[in-house]
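User: Predict the full complex structure for these chains.
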Amino acid sequence: QVQLQESGPGLVQPSGTLSLTCAVFGDPISSHHWWSWVRQSPGKGLEWIGEIYHSGVPTYNPSLKNRLTMSVDKSKNQFSLNLTSVTAADTAIYYCARIVWTAHYYFDYWGQGTLVTVSS
Amino acid sequence: SSELTQDPAVSVVLGQTVTITCQGDSLRSYSASWYQQKPGQAPVLVIYANNNRPSGIPDRFSGSSSGNTASLTITGAQADDEADYFCNSRDTSNNHLDVVFGGGTKLTVL
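Assistant: Here is the predicted structure of the two-chain assembly.
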């Protein structure tokens, strides 16, 4: 059974950097899947942040790409997110998810999510 | 980016059938997936590739797609189906890869 587990600070200062890690269990991160971050502002819908392949090639949401870096650590079977210059608008529950991308595209496994609040 | 449009709220009488729709230009080119989200929980995949159910999802959940509209149907809705439902697809309408979600439909089972 595949499981994903997000970790990172729950509180980030405005203008600071939001850093999260997603540990993957039950599937080598070097498998044929892509790995993604999705966030959900309080009471709002889902927003795709970006995705990355084990080779390290990322694809970012155009609205975030100037502040965003994603990376993969194959030795620890995890991937990470860094979002710089955060504001209150970045306050959200951040989910990591596994992507199936063959003839079709969908998120088949999700982490439980971690709430990140941007506040001083 | 492109958008996927969903009705904000839908209700269904226990045991009856309900259809939740999702509209967007990206659906003409890419398949839809659907996610169920209950309060305080992560989304759960209920339909992928327009009309396929993952293992463990009850067969009362079905999906379809035509033109720019994807649909999720629950046949014989149960109290446990009360949740938010989000549709999702890829999109390349702006000459770059993007991923879009609908705004979500809150399903109430009466």
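Chain B has a mean pLDDT of 94.
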